[in-house]
Amino acid sequence: MTERKPPGVPFESWVDKQIRDAQARGEFERLPGAGRPLPAEVDSGYDELWWIKRKMAREGLAVLPPALALRKEAEDALQAAYAAPSERIARKIVEDVNVKIRDMMFKPPPGPPLGRKPYDVEDVVREWRQRRAAAMGDESGSAL
After folding, report:
1. Handedness of CA 13, 14, 16, 17 (dihedral sign)
2. Which of 24, 72, 106, 119 is the most buried (most CB within 10 A)?
3. Exposed, middle or buried by CB within 10 Å (0-12, 13-18, 19+), for 86?
């Protein structure tokens, strides 16, 4: 741990001494990326949060406002319902996401509006049946 700056010593001199001492101890050797320039952000100006964004990307993290996260979840749920192996599972997927959509409609979080309304379960199941019938027809037709 670094010691406190002594009174009366200029800050710049004290920092320079800390750096020189760390170099003498070898604390800057074998650092990742040593000897390579920092990557430049070509298409944008300076962003003071660049390192946080890069760390999040490296760790595979993403943070969306709650409404946008639910919007994405709703779109994924609809696709999952269409691909469900049974009507019961398709209904369950849509009903579960509808509960979340209704909750957010009546208790809006901060951020952009949700821009979604609950799905009509019967419409989704009707579409599921049509897709299922088309897929079954394609499979039987391609086997001929």
Report:
1. positive
2. 119
3. exposed
The first and second tokens of residue 93, run together, are 């997927």
Contact (Cβ atoms closer than 8 angstroms) between residue 84 and residue 128: yes
> Which residue is listed with tokens 């660049």?
50
Closest C-alpha to 93, from 73, 68, 113 = 73
**DSSP 8-class letter at 63:** -
Distance CA 97, CA 124 (A): 12
* Reported pTM: 0.47
Q: What angle do CA 91, 96, 102 make, to 5 degrees?
A: 120
d(CA 77, CA 50): 32
28: tokens are 């800057």
pLDDT digits (tens, 9 = 90+) for 73-131: 999 999 999 999 999 999 999 999 999 999 988 887 677 777 888 999 999 999 999 99
Q: Which two tokens stand for residue 131?
A: 């897709």
- pLDDT tens for residues 11-21? 677 788 888 88
Which of 116, 119, 117, 113 lies closest to 66, judged by CA?
113
